[in-house]
């Protein structure tokens, strides 16, 4: 036991490791923090420097452009210059101006039509510049154009190390009435801006390897290294260069051209001082790490010595409680631990006796609980057998499905109805047991039940090759915490009940004596016929008729003869119309006919005459032969707003007229003014 204890890692080793790790973590954290702060400071200093340089460059560009635009504007506003009509004198004045302002590569004066009347060095004199942007742009206001390559002057100016590029400046010269009489135009050489850049950036380029760019509004480099000029500039995405951007602004007479000044510096140069400091931080951190090793060992030795003494005293004991434990002192915690071990040793024997008594009582209680558990298990098994017997003999499908849609219980009715053994269903999902079409119909209800909703629905299923209707109920199994463990599925065969319902529904819509549609079915069909007539625009006829003097037949021959007459009349009416028309019995001897798709009202008259002839044929009633007749009222519908009761009322009024005319005839209701379906 002693050797096993000391083979484990000692507390002193753990303390040394923990203290050393803490010191190393502190040194590393401080080093990383200092490194981050130093880098952040170096980056910010570099960006501040670049921003200051970019701001200075931008200010110089703005002041220079303001001065150059102002010089041309001042020259254009001089009255004596504007009235100068001698081209030679004007040229001398312009040449003198160019000597004072050498940044202008060309200065010229045009007449109102765009012909150059005077120019420095005589360049372009007499040329038509009316198509140049600077001439058309200075029609009624000063014009400043963006940097562009020389066009007309490219071959006339002296050769230069770089291609000539200009900024156009033009001012209109107006008379006392504000009309332009001439235009003063100037081409500011872009080498002027290059000189401004050289004066400002040369020292920074030599010491800090920085460079400056002037970017046009569309991103084209106007001024910068030769390899970048004329190309589209995109800010570096890999942090290889630090840069600061300053957009130019309008200043005085210069309204601005949307230029942006960019000053760049390589990251390696910007962070050179930081790299030196970083190496110094690494050296200091390495020295601190070397000092941490002996320091952590000394701290661990001081903290673990009293515990080593206490561990040695424990290792010498065969078991706690046999020999008094020595009291170890070193620091407060070790003393408390030593006193606790001494008290533990004194209580150990008493606890052993108490534990023996407790084990004896526990064994007795375990025997009692085992017997109770066995009895409860037997009762549970009996209850399960009774429940299984009940469910297996119920005329319904009963199953339990868990939250993963797996079947955990199914009664024996599944074998009888569905041909599926309950044992084979266990553990299989609903998707596996049902056909794709059947599962698709049940899936919405399954998902609803799994979120706690009780679902009742009907489904068609083939039982023994006969289509049956099942009423299916899903009852959620909700736990105490509100979650749903699954659901119970109860399916009952309601085919017989559905057949009875359909039969009763059919009986409620058919006249039992004649087999014709009754008033309820007639009202439904009349609504549908009116809707079809409104859509098609064709005429609909409604015939209302009864048997003349039918009450005398009932009174003299009896109700049996009356019923036979009604059946005969119903049969003859059905034979007088098309299959698509409707013949119905309303009540007593009242019948109604709906004729659809008529092209003209006369077609209804022909049907009415046919009915009159058919009804007048001899009719046997018992041992007597009767001569029957009928009266008919006809109403028409050709679109427009009308209700079925109103249409029936019109036919009834026409029937009354037929009765008044002596019976055995028909009358048509007055056709109302046509109203289009859209206006209705």
Compact description:
The chain is an alpha+beta fold and 680 residues long.
Give the key terms:
680 residues, alpha+beta, six-stranded antiparallel beta sheet, five-stranded antiparallel beta sheet, 22 strands
Mean pLDDT: 81
Largest sheet: number of strands, sense, barrel closure: 6 strands, antiparallel
- Care to count the β-strands? 22
Structural class: alpha+beta
Distance between the termini: 107 Å
- The best one-word shape is flat
What share of residues are in beta strands?
Answer: 15-25%
Instruction: Pick out the low-confidence regions.
Output: 1-6, 673-680
Number of helices: 19
Helix content: 40-55%
Radius of gyration: 56 Å
Description of the molecule:
It is a single chain. This protein has 680 residues and is α+β, with helices and mostly antiparallel strands. It is built from 19 helices and 22 strands. The longest helix is centred in the N-terminal third of the chain and has 66 residues, at 11-76. 24% of the residues are buried. Residues 1-6 and 673-680 have low confidence and may be disordered.
List the helices and strands and how they pair.
Layout: H1 2-7, H2 11-76, H3 79-82, H4 87-100, E1 104-111, E2 116-119, H5 133-137, E3 143-144, E4 148-149, E5 165-174, E6 180-189, H6 191-208, E7 211-215, E8 221-223, E9 241-247, E10 260-266, H7 267-270, H8 272-315, H9 332-392, E11 396-402, E12 407-410, H10 413-418, H11 422-425, H12 430-433, H13 436-449, E13 455-463, E14 466-478, E15 484-493, H14 495-507, H15 519-536, E16 539-547, H16 550-557, H17 559-575, E17 582-587, E18 590-598, H18 601-616, E19 618-621, E20 624-627, E21 630-637, H19 644-660, E22 666-668
